[in-house]
């Protein structure tokens, strides 16, 4: 967890204005942002924004404190894998030196009983609004072929542990495995990749994923919660937040000049959109944006944006005064679902061995924060493919939960906690009368 600490030092320098001298005085945050493959000279569990480290047989650590324990239940939550940018510059087309290609796997979407229709996105050269989107065959926020491959590999690694190593999951079957996703296509597609990674035979089979109606979905979350929004607005109005915007005004001005984003609120209130539009490019082998007069976003500025992104995510969901109250309102419905899962299991009534969720960065950061992982070290922006595994082990007559984050057991009491205590912990994160707490005056 030295990464987080290191980042804090870096950020404090930024805030103190000591890093304004440019790349010379500024180290990049520790991490990989330009490849799904972590270079072999770095530790396997290095933060890789493009493809997070996850449970795999080579590095899986069994519970050493209880060698006779048996795995009996599993809940896993992951973020989808890499995709095209989810945010667009006003003159998006100009800021791409190469087209985006999404024609390399078929985008199926058809009604059961109907023909197997798939859609092909095309940016027509003649389209009067072409300046607003890149050339090629991708929509915004679309899983790329590299992202699909990463999800297949993720499924293989998952299976290498929970099937081959532990023999817990015996086959990829609808009886044993429940999958829930958000309503975004990329989360269905990642589920399909995971399944094929677990069992290549799934490529020719169907498998259901469950979603909630989008207006009330608890992943990413999207149910309405104005009282949570108000808490966030308040803690993003104090110096603990606004200072970093002021301290980086030079950076922001440079980015605006190159990217045409001056005066746009969505690009000024936080660095989220810059982070997304840079990392989506670099993770997928595209260069950082260059505009039509040949000016480009520099590596050093991108590195600053990545570090600021970590600061902002940690602040909003972990460090801010009232961050916990915010997340409890905003994500309590998901925590309720988790608590229900574990209670159902405890009463012997969960028919599933594995409940698997595919969500978003917003899902992962809230879950990590509400599980208290931010108390161990500052939280970083949840990488693509970020993973939280909640294992239940049976030892004698007792059951324990073990939480594994980005491939390694956590170093808090969640490394081994009685099932009852874990359930209690989940339930504590669910505000009473949550709908009223979100909407009431
Ligand atoms: C990724 O970035 C690192 C550090 O900036 C650099 O050394 C490496 O060559 C880059 N790799 C690719 C594939 O661009
Ligand atoms: C994008 O397509 C337009 C229209 O065909 C073309 O003028 C432009 O050069 C293309 N840009 C890139 C980067 O390929
Ligand atoms: C946190 O919430 C309390 C109680 O509502 C409020 O008084 C305080 O101003 C909030 N702090 C911030 C930083 O928004
Ligand atoms: C390109 O970026 C440079 C440097 O930031 C800026 O001066 C110029 O106006 C930009 N050109 C366009 C067309 O946006």
TrEMBL record:
| Pfam annotation, one family | His_Phos_2
Q: Which residues form the signal peptide?
A: 1-21
Name the domain of life this protein comes from: Eukaryota
Instruction: List, in alphabetical order, the Gene Ontology terms for molecular function in this entry.
Output: phosphatase activity
Provide this UniProt record's keywords sorted from A to Z.
Signal
Question: Which PANTHER family does this entry report, sorted A to Z?
Answer: ACID PHOSPHATASE, PUTATIVE (AFU_ORTHOLOGUE AFUA_3G14570)-RELATED (PTHR11567:SF195), ACID PHOSPHATASE-RELATED (PTHR11567)
Family according to the record? Belongs to the histidine acid phosphatase family.
Could you tell me what this protein is called? Phosphoglycerate mutase-like protein
Tell me which species this is from: Trametes coccinea (strain BRFM310)
């Amino acid at each position: 967890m030295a990464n987080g600490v290191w980042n804090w030092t870096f950020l404090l320098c930024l805030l103190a204005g000591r890093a304004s001298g440019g790349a010379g005085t500024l180290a990049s945050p520790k991490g990989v942002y330009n490849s799904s493959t972590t270079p072999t000279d770095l530790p396997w569990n290095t933060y890789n924004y493009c493809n997070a480290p996850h449970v795999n047989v080579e590095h899986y650590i069994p519970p050493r404190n209880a060698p006779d324990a048996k795995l009996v239940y599993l809940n896993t939550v992951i973020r989808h894998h890499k995709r095209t940018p989810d945010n667009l510059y006003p003159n998006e087309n100009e800021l791409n030196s190469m087209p985006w290609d999404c024609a390399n796997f078929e985008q199926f979407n058809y009604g059961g009983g109907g023909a197997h229709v798939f859609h092909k996105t095309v940016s027509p050269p003649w389209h009067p609004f072409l300046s607003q989107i890149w050339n090629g065959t991708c929509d915004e926020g679309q899983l790329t072929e590299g992202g699909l491959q990463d999800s297949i590999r993720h499924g293989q690694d998952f299976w290498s542990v929970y099937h081959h190593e532990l023999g817990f999951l015996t086959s990829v079957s609808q009886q044993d495995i429940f999958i829930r996703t958000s309503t975004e296509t990329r989360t269905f597609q990642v589920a399909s990749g995971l399944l094929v990674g677990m069992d290549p035979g799934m490529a020719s089979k169907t498998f259901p994923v469950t979603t909630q109606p989008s207006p009330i979905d608890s992943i990413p979350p999207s149910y309405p919660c104005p009282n949570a929004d108000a808490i966030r607005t308040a803690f993003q109005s104090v110096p603990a937040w606004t200072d970093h915007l002021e301290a980086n005004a030079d950076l922001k001005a440079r980015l605006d000049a190159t990217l045409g984003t001056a005066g746009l609120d969505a690009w000024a209130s936080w660095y989220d959109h810059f982070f997304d539009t840079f990392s989506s490019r670099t993770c997928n082998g595209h260069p950082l944006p260059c505009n039509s007069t040949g000016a480009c976003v520099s590596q050093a500025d991108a590195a600053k944006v990545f570090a600021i992104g970590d600061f902002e995510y940690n602040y909003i969901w972990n460090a801010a005064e009232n961050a916990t109250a915010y997340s409890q309102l905003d994500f309590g419905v998901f925590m309720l679902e988790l608590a229900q899962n574990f209670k159902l299991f405890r009463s012997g009534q969960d028919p599933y061995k594995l409940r698997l969720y595919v969500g978003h960065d917003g899902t992962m950061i809230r879950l990590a924060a509400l599980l208290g992982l931010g108390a161990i070290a500052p939280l970083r922006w949840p990488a693509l493919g970020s993973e939280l595994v909640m294992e239940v082990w049976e030892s004698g007559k007792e059951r324990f939960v073990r939480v594994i984050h980005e491939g390694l057991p956590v170093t808090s009491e969640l490394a081994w906690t009685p099932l009852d205590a874990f359930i209690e912990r989940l339930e504590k994160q669910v505000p009473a009368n949550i709908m009223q707490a979100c909407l009431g005056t």
